[in-house]
């Protein structure tokens, strides 16, 4: 195809000045035109490779735990405390809340009954009736003089209606975006707060997987209403939840949350649960929660039931699950099926299925809707419920939160819910899985290139 400059030979004195400039630009060598973009791309790849290496374990075989105590023994509790740096507290009460119909009513009740303070931190605050209802409840208490602090992850809450933020602030609530992207902090863009925590009057706390959006309403009865698990907590463990919020609040605002109204005396119950609130942040090496999960898997003697909304385990965790199955533990993993909001993560997880199935792990995909719950139950006597997915993003890139219970009551309740979920799930058949096509296999393998970000 001929261009507008083809009729000029570059020597004509009648050649317009602008045309000569364009002709000169056309003659710039390709390597010079691509130099700056290539340099920027090389610099980014170098940074990404460096960060990836910083997050890789030197020991490629993963982890080792010598003679770990089973979760039923006090030795396990002491090990969990020592490895994570978080001490468990006794005398707590925890209620398991399943799906939006059980989760949002007590959350709204707590907010509407607040007398002194409301502290809400969330990764997901999107749109819909429940988003407006939660904002209205906070707005009403803020107007009544209650101290309301709302911490929204700047990336996860991007879908939130700006009018809600404005109305909350006008009513007196302090609304802050956590780690907003800035040019001089591009290296931290991937390090999000994935935590969900609500503490009211310093005496009742909520945490789990739920986001504030209409997707989480209902009872997982159809694809538009997701399956999730949350907790309502009373007792000394609430102070640790307050600490989870306070850690990020002081980072975002510089305000230290102290005083009796925010940190009241919390009496333990004689028949209460032993609970451990474990928080982790993006760091080099192993996060607290990653170590806790490995300890739990290595300590399992009879059963291991894992529910993971996003399942893309690194090789050390694939090995840990297979090792547990080979020593006689019944290992069951429940993940989303056809209804998933992150198909690429699902492909990465499916890339590990063959090895897990060969190792004796039972794999199930939840069918009715998106499965967003995040929990782990070991031997029916220890459990963990929180914001943690079974992937590298949760273990090493995001700031996360999980609640562990060392007494059997809550673990038994969670185990019953797991059995109900399996009734609505399809078990992956090893023979059928081995017959999947070459295109699917290729797509799964591609995801390993970005495993660190998943």
CATH topology: Endonuclease, Chain A
Helix vs. strand class: alpha/beta
Shape annotation: globular
The separation of the N and C termini measures: 45 Å
Summarize the main sheet: 15 strands, mixed
Range of strand content: 15-25%
- Give the rounded overall mean pLDDT: 87
The number of helical segments is 16
Q: Walk across the major sheet and give the strand order.
A: 4-3-2-5-6-7-1-8-16-14-13-9-11-12-17
User: Under the CATH scheme, which class?
Assistant: Alpha Beta
Helix content: 25-40%
**Number of DSSP strand runs:** 17
Task: Give the uncertain stretches in residue-range form.
Answer: 1-14, 47-60
CATH architecture: 2-Layer Sandwich
CATH homologous superfamily caption? Endonuclease Chain A
In short:
The chain is an alpha/beta fold and 454 residues long. It is 38% helix and 20% strand.
Describe the 3D structure.
This protein is an alpha/beta fold. It has one domain: 2-Layer Sandwich (Endonuclease, Chain A), CATH 3.30.870. Helix content is 38%, strand content 20%. It is built from 16 helices and 17 strands. It has helices spanning 17-26, 30-33, 35-54, 74-84, 99-112, 129-143, 162-171, 237-253, 288-299, 315-326, 343-350, 353-358, 392-397, 408-422, 430-434, 438-446; strands at residues 89-98, 117-122, 147-153, 174-178, 197-200, 204-208, 229-234, 273-280, 303-308, 311-312, 330-336, 362-366, 374-378, 382-386, 390-391, 400-405, 425-427. The strands form 2 sheets. The chain has a 15-stranded mixed beta sheet, sandwiched between helices. The chain has a two-stranded parallel ribbon with strand order 10-15. Helix 4 packs antiparallel against helix 9 (288-299), helix 5 packs parallel to helix 6 (129-143) and helix 6 (129-143) packs parallel to helix 7 (162-171). The protein is globular and about 60 Å long. The chain starts with 16 loop residues before the first helix and ends in an 8-residue tail after the last helix.
């Amino acid at each position: 195809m001929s261009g507008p400059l083809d009729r000029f030979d570059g020597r004509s004195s009648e050649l317009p000045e602008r045309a000569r400039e364009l002709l000169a630009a056309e003659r710039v060598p390709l390597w010079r035109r691509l130099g700056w973009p290539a340099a920027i791309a090389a610099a980014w790849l170098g940074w990404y490779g460096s960060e990836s290496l910083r997050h890789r374990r030197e020991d490629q075989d993963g982890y080792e735990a010598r003679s770990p105590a089973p979760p039923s023994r006090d030795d396990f509790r002491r090990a969990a405390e020592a490895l994570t740096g978080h001490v468990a507290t006794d005398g707590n009460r925890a209620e398991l809340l399943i799906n939006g119909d059980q989760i949002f009513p007590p959350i709204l009740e707590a907010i509407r009954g607040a007398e002194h303070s409301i502290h809400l931190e969330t990764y997901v605050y999107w749109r819909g009736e429940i988003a407006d209802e939660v904002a209205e409840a906070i707005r009403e208490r803020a107007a009544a003089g209650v101290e309301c602090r709302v911490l929204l992850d700047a990336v996860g809450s991007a879908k939130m209606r700006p009018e809600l933020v404005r109305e909350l602030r006008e009513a007196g609530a302090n609304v802050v975006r956590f780690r907003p992207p800035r040019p001089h902090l591009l290296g931290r863009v991937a390090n999000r707060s994935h935590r969900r925590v609500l503490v009211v009057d310093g005496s009742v706390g909520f945490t789990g997987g739920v986001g504030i959006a209409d997707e989480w309403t209902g009872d997982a009865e159809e694809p538009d209403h997701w399956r999730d698990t949350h907790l309502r907590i009373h007792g000394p463990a609430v102070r640790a939840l307050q600490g989870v919020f306070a850690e990020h609040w002081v980072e975002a605002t510089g305000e230290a949350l102290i005083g009796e109204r925010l940190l009241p005396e919390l009496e333990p119950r004689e028949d209460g649960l032993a609970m451990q609130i474990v928080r982790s942040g993006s760091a080099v090496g192993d996060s607290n929660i990653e170590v806790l999960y490995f300890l739990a898997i290595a300590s399992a003697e009879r059963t291991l039931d894992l529910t993971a909304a996003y399942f893309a385990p690194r090789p050390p965790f694939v090995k840990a699950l297979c090792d547990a199955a080979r020593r006689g533990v019944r290992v069951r993993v429940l993940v989303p099926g056809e209804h998933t909001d992150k198909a690429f993560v699902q492909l990465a997880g499916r890339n590990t299925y063959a090895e897990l199935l060969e190792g004796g792990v039972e794999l199930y995909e939840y069918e009715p809707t998106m499965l967003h719950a995040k929990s782990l139950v070991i031997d029916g006597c220890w459990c963990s419920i929180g914001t943690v997915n079974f992937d590298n993003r949760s273990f090493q890139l995001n700031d996360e939160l999980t609640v562990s219970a060392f007494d059997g009551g809550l673990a038994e309740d969670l185990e019953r819910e797991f059995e109900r979920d399996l009734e609505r799930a399809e078990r992956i058949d090893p023979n059928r899985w081995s017959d999947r096509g070459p295109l699917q296999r290729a797509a799964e393998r591609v995801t390993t290139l970005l495993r660190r970000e998943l």
